[in-house]
């Protein structure tokens, strides 16, 4: 079976609040090999994340925690936590959009 989606790799992805104005998404890679595969694919970048979440790419932050095989993404929430238009107050479902990211060269 060919792996084509980020969600098919050996990863655990979660999202959460990083204060009332920011969202953080953590991608826990199950191995160093998976970490490097995802990092080298280039799919986790500021422009792509901005497009996916409607954020300003200049404000998207991506942190590489290589010792833990973790990629961490932070970006401003579209609305502050608790705003009348806020649909996910705890930011718990933001990670779902990342599951379908296709890794280049891994298309089924």
Automatic annotation (TrEMBL):
Q: Which residues form the DUF4387 domain?
A: 6-101
| Cross-referenced Pfam families | DUF4387 (PF14330)
- What superkingdom does the record give? Bacteria
**What InterPro entries does its record include?**
DUF4387
Q: What is this protein called?
A: DUF4387 domain-containing protein
Q: Which organism encodes this protein?
A: Hyphomonas adhaerens MHS-3
- Taxonomic placement: Bacteria, Pseudomonadati, Pseudomonadota, Alphaproteobacteria, Hyphomonadales
């Amino acid at each position: 079976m060919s792996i084509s989606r980020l969600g098919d790799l050996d990863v655990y992805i979660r999202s959460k609040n990083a204060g009332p104005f920011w969202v953080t998404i953590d991608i826990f890679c199950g191995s160093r090999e998976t970490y490097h595969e995802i990092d080298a694919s280039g799919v986790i970048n500021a422009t792509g994340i901005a497009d996916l979440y409607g954020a300003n790419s200049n404000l998207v932050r991506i942190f590489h925690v290589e010792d833990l095989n973790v990629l961490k993404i932070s970006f401003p929430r579209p609305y502050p936590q608790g705003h009348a238009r806020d649909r996910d107050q705890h930011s718990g479902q933001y990670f779902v959009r990342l599951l379908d990211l296709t890794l280049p060269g891994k298309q089924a």
